[in-house]
């Protein structure tokens, strides 16, 4: 499914910008929907992107003609359309990380009884690629495809811990917004936490990303030795407590290591966090 390149070229000419710059704006608009908000308005997008409302309106009109976004008349805001959803489903279906992980996620869910998730590293954070929800009456589930920051929650922290020092410093130099009352927003405290995660090989969260939830996660590495995602087990805090973490952590690490081996990882982490 292609964008209306003729329309975009005309928009670029009107804006006095290049076709590449115009295409970049189209991508920027779509990527704004990854940050949690289900609907966005023209004014908000223009403000966030530091461009005129006229430019944003033209981009949204072009996207709407291809069902990549839809206009909601009562709120006068836009949301992702069915074509965008189809692209997301196709990306998930074709993900080597997801396909490789399915059997290991099922086994981990069977052994722990709690919700098991798979996250993938993406520009600007990480997203949930898949989950197997617990059969308990009270169970935790996650939102697939939504982008989350790399400083909050066990999956995020265990990915961040095994990134390069340059990337860690860049991420921690930005404002750390609290997602819950338990989110660690002090960069010095986070650096210490990342050192612990690297030493023991897994991360733990006690309501850092979602209130009243607990989780334990381990990193997944790709063929080149770089961290590419994380596997986690999560659930309500009254079940996912310190005793549960002691039981589940070795199983989570084992599952993450098995997935990494399936992706071609030879056990040598290429991005030394101290370099």
How would you characterize this protein structure?
The protein has two domains: 5-87, Winged helix-like DNA-binding domain superfamily/Winged helix DNA-binding domain (Arc Repressor Mutant, subunit A), CATH 1.10.10; 95-262, 2-Layer Sandwich (Beta-Lactamase), CATH 3.30.450. The chain is 46% helix and 19% strand. The protein has ten helices and nine strands. It starts with a helix and ends in a 13-residue tail after the last helix.
How would you describe this structure in keywords?
275 residues; Beta-Lactamase; three-stranded antiparallel sheet; 2 domains; alpha+beta; globular; disordered N terminus; 10 helices; Arc Repressor Mutant, subunit A
Q: Give the CATH architecture of the largest domain.
A: 2-Layer Sandwich
CATH level 4 superfamily of the largest domain: GAF domain
Total discrete domains: 2
Tell me the radius of gyration: 20 Å
**What proportion of the residues is helical, as a percent range?**
40-55%
Distance between the termini: 42 Å
How many beta-strand runs? 9
The 3D shape can be described as: globular
Strand order of the largest sheet: 6-5-4-9-8-7
Q: Note poorly predicted spans.
A: 1-17
Q: What is the level 1 CATH name of the largest domain?
A: Alpha Beta
Oligomer category: single chain
